[in-house]
Amino acid sequence: MTERDTQRAIEAVFRLERARVIAGLTRIVRDVGLAEELAQDALVVALRHWPESGVPLNPGAWLMQTAKRRAIDYFRRNKMAARKLEELGHDLREQESTAPDLDTALDDDVGDDLLRLIFTACHPAISPEARVALTLRLLGGLTTDEIARAFLAAEPTIAQRIVRAKKSLAEAGLPFEVPRTEERAARLASVLDVIYLIFNEGYSATAGDDWTRPQLCEEAMRLGRVLVGLTPEEPEVHGLVALMEIQASRLRARTGPGGEPILLLDQDRGLWDRLLINRGFAALDRAAALGGNGPYVLQAEIAACHARARRAGETDWPRIAALYDALAANTPSPVVELNRAVAHAMAFGPGNGLAILDAIADAPALRTYHLLPSVRGDFLMKLGRRTEARFEFERAAELTRNQRERALLLDRAASCLAD
Q1: DSSP secondary structure letters along 91-142
Q2: How many other C-beta atoms are found inside a 10 Å radius of the C-beta of residue 14?
Q3: What is the pLDDT of residue 92?
Q4: Backbone angles phi, psi at 194, to 5 degrees
Q5: 3-state SS track over 181-194
Q6: What's the alpha-carbon Rg for the chain, to the nearest Å?
Q7: What is the pLDDT of residues 225-280, one digit of tens each?
Q8: Angular region, 111: left φ>0, alpha ψ -120 to 50, beta rest
């Protein structure tokens, strides 16, 4: 293995363990910004030592121990928090004597440090947009650029939100906990948004060489299931879990042998995970029994329509179009309208979809969103307007940051010239 291969392997391990390390450190140092810096310091140490010693059997525990040592050094250098230094030293000595497994560190009735970190980052002391951006950075491991694309916002704007959020949390001295009852309910919507955005980054990576990042999907689903145990009477929580599990059922079918993307209508549905689909149906039934009709329940209903169709031609597109109409009324946004256009095009013809698309073509949020020209290109192609379609596919390819998706869009542009 070359030095570069080793470095990539270490970085891959860090991506998997990063969120848990940051969450565990935040519980100790009570400062999310400092926790993130300490975790990054631990990675630097790993990059220096692991190429020679090899990746340890429990890399998460190694990273946590190293980060805690860096925390002790930090407090010593700054001559502050003598009590905190003593707590850290005691915690580190205890860790060395008991050699805990971080993977089994689930706690009492509120899940784990990751869920605590999400609720802490979603505190009302910071704006809703900043809450989601900060948590995606800390738990999802997304770069500022990736978060900006998820928000359809400018990168400097997202960077400022994250900095302000960290500062607000540090200044407020907020407890690191999952809140109780009413306060928990007030933060729940932001928590659900965070979990689903983490899932979406795994389902369709905004950048890089991979079309999907399954480990992020798995982490989001795990957090969703923990949240169900915490809030069993909340239909939107069940709706989110249903949505993620039904969508995750398609992961194996979303890429070909070489990692190339395979679109929904072209997928081998025999590869869809029926266990995940059935679990999603069960969660959707629980949401319905609780009277749920919020945005996540509606999106789960849409995903369920696809899952029930054994072949693409059996998809109930009029039903999906009606669900998107309800979703647009419930939670209006340019992205919902974009998806509604696709559903109406499939149900009633590409001309109907194009009319909906034209109404949102100038929406500022979609100005650099590659799916707008991609979908428009698809409609134009079906209408026989090949030259216009080719231009839209090429524009979409320029806008995407994902290499697999760019190749797919360029192939679609080239196909516009075929006889």
Answers
A1: HHHHHHHH---GGG--BTTTB-HHHHHHHHHT-TTS-HHHHHHHHHHHTS--
A2: 20
A3: 54
A4: -60, -50
A5: HHHHHHHHHHHHHH
A6: 23
A7: 888 987 899 999 999 999 999 999 999 999 998 888 899 999 999 999 999 999 99
A8: left
Question: What predicted TM-score, i.e. pTM, was given to this entire model?
Answer: 0.72
Query: H/E/C letters for each residue in 52-85?
Result: HHCCCCCHHHHHHHHHHHHHHHHHHHHCCCHHHH
378/41 Cα distance (integer angstroms): 46
Q: Are 271 and 253 in contact (CB under 8 A)?
A: yes
The H or E element containing residue 208 is strand 207-208
CA pair distance 64, 62, nearest whole angstrom:
5
- Checking DSSP bridges between strand 207-208 and strand 401-402, what pairing results, if any? parallel
User: Do 132 and 43 meet the contact criterion of CB atoms below 8 Å apart?
Assistant: no
Distance CA 383, CA 211 (A): 28
Picking from 276, 267, 271, 210, the residue whose alpha carbon sits closest to that of residue 247 is: 276
pLDDT digits (tens, 9 = 90+) for 66-79: 988 888 888 777 75
- Quickly count: other Cβ atoms within 10 Å of residue 373's Cβ: 25
Please give the structure tokens belonging to residue 359. 């109404």
In angstroms, how far apart are the furthest CA atoms of the chain? 76
Beta-bridge partner residues of 255: 261
* Lookup result for tokens 């969703």: 224
End-to-end CA distance of the chain: 47
Q: Is 279 helix (H, G, I), strand (E, B) or coil?
A: helix
Instruction: Check if the beta carbon of residue 138 is closer than 8 Å to that of residue 22.
Output: yes
Instruction: Please report the beta strands in 229-359, taking only residues with DSSP state E, as ranges in sequence order.
Output: none
